[in-house]
Amino acid sequence: MSGQTTQIFSDAEPDLAYRAKWYTERALIYGALIFWAFICLFPIYWTVTTSFKIAPDVMRGNLVPWVDFEPQWRGWRSLGLSPNTISETSTVREEFLKRFMNSVITSLSASMLAVTLGSLAAYGLSRFSYRFGFMRNSDISFFFLSQMILPPVVLALPFLILYKELALLDSRIGIILLYTLMVLPIVIWIMRDQFSAIPIELEEAALVDGLSVWGAFVQIVLPIALPGMVAAFILSLVLTWNEYFFAALLTSTDAKTLPVMVASQTGSQGINWWSMAALSTAAIAPLVVIGVVLERYIIKGMAAGAGK
Amino acid sequence: MKSLLDRHLPKIVVAPSFAAVLFFVYGFIGWTVYVSFTKSRILPKYELVGWLQYEKLFATPRWYVALDNLFVFMVLFVAIAIMIGLLLAILLDQKIRAEGVIRTIYLYPMALSFIVTGTAWKWLLNPGLGIEKVVRDWGFPDFKFDWLIDPEMAIYTVVMAGVWQSSGFVMALFLAGLRSINEEIIRAALVDGVGPFRLYFHVIIPSLRPVFVSAVIVLTHLAIKSFDLIIALTHGGPGYATDMPATFMYAMAFSRGQLGQAAASATVMLATVSAVIVPYLYSELRRKA
């Protein structure tokens, strides 16, 4: 019996050294990667936990719930979203829900519009040859994509003045149209690559079988390009949900979105850390959920949007 | 009817986007440039006055502060984000378990609005709270970290937050680049007995040149656009010590009632961005098409 526990073969000295080196190397690599992951997550962790802190906890820098501090509903109560205030009427909650709905409606509508318009344009650019004055396909693509690099400030002034004229200031419609325009180039960029990757023979076969160009697009191309469209849609959603510059500029009371509400919380008397944190948590929660569920698509969209 | 639709389909699919972009982007750029040559203050005026607004702009000390800050921010932000991003990509390319999870975590800072995550940064950087307090509690009672309220140093807090936000994204770019390197080249180098450091510095990194170019372009563009970062962290303060062109323009247009100045600064920004990026983007598209 004892023979089974004694080792017959043992590693030679150099093998052991090699293995020790391998393990330290691995430990260093994982250590560095986890360190950066910690840095990435810390502000998010802080925001979520702080929404359950009371003032002394924030000031003392207590970080670990139940160990450092006892979680309280302080932050959420100030938003009217804690268990004991949820049934009461609360003006803050109403304001918050209004902003939240504004954000939901504007980002969803703008993303849908942009994906529809952008996919059509991208399809055209990947399938037909255009000649518009001196412009060929690549020039038209450039015409669309160049606005991706524009500093948005260049468009801020005319939009402000136009919207004042058209009474679109502080309206959801105005914001939706602007956001559509803002994400349109990214959608076109992603979808052009998607459509180019689909062999044109598929549609030619469909045309031979008697489908119209439009029919071939709807029945053959669209289903294949759907994952790309979802990626483009999610990326648009993220960008429009986070947009602050134009929302701050063009909305005041009715159409104000969540980021504008968050930014306006920093008053002259310093910051209410806990209510800021509760509000911030509510603002990032939808994205974190989407991120976990649709991670694949976001990565795909971001990689494509970056201009590989 | 049906054949009519088919015949005009190419135009129909592109026309809405084309018209919208033509009017609202190019038309509006034209308008902004035009207004920068007028005397507009609170309301737009349309008589041309030549380069007056630009002369005024370049005689404004605050504009130079903004340009200075942009330069400092851009150089540091681009360099550091690329270094960290490349390092993370190389580390993540070593057959790591749970690579997908880590990659997603690295992209979170970019996917969340800085207006929102900025709250946590403000706490971290707040003298008396955050980092300063934590280090003091560790037993260094004289530790000082008040960059956020120091006019000389505040811009570096913006760099820190910017790097935090963008490094994961740069990592994704480099990781894609690393994955597309031809295996043969690496194997050949290994057969030749090249060590890991020489492999990276002499073989792999040089072959990532195109990724470096696009990373620099994307980051430069992010730097010129950066607005949320500054508004959320410092609001351009203390005073206007961390003003950047975007916040300068915002202040001119909306709290100072100087439309002409705002338009002139926007035009200068546009010209700068175009000079850097347009040639690259155009050649990129030409090559693809």
What descriptive keywords fit this protein?
heterodimer; A: 308 residues; mainly alpha; MetI-like fold; 14 helices; 0% strand; flat; B: 289 residues; 13 helices; globular
Model description:
The complex is a heterodimer of chains A (308) and B (289). Chain A is mostly helical and 308 residues long. Chain A folds into 2 domains: 2-78; 91-307, Orthogonal Bundle (MetI-like fold). Chain A contains 14 helices and no strands. The longest helix of chain A has 38 residues, at 13-50. The model of chain A has no long low-confidence stretch (mean pLDDT 82). Chain B has 289 residues and is mostly helical. Chain B has a single domain (61-288), classed as MetI-like (MetI-like fold, Orthogonal Bundle). Chain B is 74% helix and 0% strand. Chain B contains 13 helices and no strands. The model of chain B has no long low-confidence stretch (mean pLDDT 85). Chains A and B meet through helix 2, helix 3, helix 5, helix 6 and helix 7 of A and helix 1, helix 3, helix 4, helix 5 and helix 6 of B.
Quick structural gist:
The complex is a heterodimer of chains A (308) and B (289). Chain A is mostly helical.
Q: Report the principal-axis shape of chain A.
A: flat
- Sheet/helix structural class of chain A: mainly alpha
Helix tally of chain A equals 14
Give me the secondary-structure category of chain B.
mainly alpha
Q: Any guess at the CATH architecture of the largest domain in chain A?
A: Orthogonal Bundle
Report the β-strand fraction of chain A as a percent range: under 5%
As a percent range, the share of strand residues of chain B is: under 5%
Structural domains of chain A: how many: 2
State the helicity of chain A in percent bands. over 70%
CATH class of the largest domain in chain A: Mainly Alpha
The overall pLDDT average of chain A reads 82
CATH topology name of the largest domain in chain A, in short, is MetI-like fold
Distance between the termini of chain A: 63 Å
Distance between the termini of chain B: 33 Å
Largest interface: A-B, 91 and 99 residues
Number of helices of chain B: 13
